[in-house]
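>> received
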Amino acid sequence: MVLYARDIMKEYTFMMKEETTASQAAKIMSNDHVGFAIIERDGKPIGMVTEWDFVNKIVSKDLNPKEVLLKDIMNTPLMSVDPKTPTDQVTVLMSKKGVRRLPVIENGKLIGVITSRDVLRIFKDYMDNLSDVIARFGSF
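>> returned
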């Protein structure tokens, strides 16, 4: 059975405007328990800001998060996958690009996000299933 991006993603469709301040975004991210913000323009996802961007681009430079706009610190173009992307391709992309979050976009709309935790969860499920098979039938 092949799993696809849609199978492992967490549904998440909230996006923030480019003009949102880093301070406002941090509060929303905290309330949503996520370490990222997807940035939109005209209803289309165009970039992402992560907690690392806050540390690297604001805190380490002693900038005031109330004065920094997301458009000034976002990573763009937005790296994303289609919901029909097989998970092995998702993991290769995340590994090669060194990203821990990958938006899932269908027809130009954000439908979810895959995080490194999601990948670890499916790996754990796979290992548990494999252990069950080995326990039942013995090693080869």
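>> The chain has one domain: 5-137.
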